[in-house]
Amino acid sequence: DIVLTVSEYSKQKIQEHFGIKDVVITPNAVDPVFFEEYDKKKVVQEVKRKYNLDNYWIYISRWEPRKNHHTLLKVFIENEYYKKYSLVLIGDQSITNTEFKMLYDGLDESVKKTIFILNKVSFNELILLMRGATLAVYPSIAEGFGIPPLESSAAGISTICSNTTAMSDFIFLKNRLFNPFSENDFNDKIKFGLQNKQDVSISDAIQNKYRWELSAAIFKEKIVPAEE
Known about the structure:
Elements: E1 3-5, H1 8-18, E2 23-25, H2 40-51, E3 56-60, H3 69-78, E4 86-90, H4 98-105, H5 109-112, E5 115-118, H6 123-132, E6 135-138, H7 148-154, E7 159-162, E8 177-178, H8 183-195, H9 200-209, H10 212-223
Parallel strand pairs: 1-2, 3-4, 3-6, 4-5, 6-7, 7-8
Helix pairs in contact: 2-6, 3-4
């Protein structure tokens, strides 16, 4: 009777493939923990102690070719970012990314030491690693929603994100959005993200739009129409 989805992109695809006209968008929400204040210096020290990591980028996503890990690795290597930064990849293995594996396997051991692949971490570890990051990246090619860049942005981490599919809704990221098919655009946004702190207004915009109270209100209005 009621068809709900989480983004304008998903709504359009449901309408296109199933011929359903009336689709209601109830966006996913960002957990309040991501908006909490924290001591960046203490977090960085804790990450260094637990993982021997500092000055690193983070990408949180399960593994599938569409998640575009290979382009991230290629840009990271070809621009020699490994000389100054580490790359932390967090997420379960789902579908093998052959292109990433071939590129990674061909790297010198000294370069491989700057790349950390953590397939499974606890929620508390994920929060810690996210908060300690210098840069959060999200180069996925296609998403029905795409919540990790919202979470890192809410946490005040300098974040850059793909501008395709559902992620095109994240207009508040402005010049932090990039074309995941363009390595040059991707690299330009990496440079921007490294040089510019995350604007507080981005976190505020996320908190206003992506909260369960708002989605619940939309749902309630749909199932209990206002009395005439």
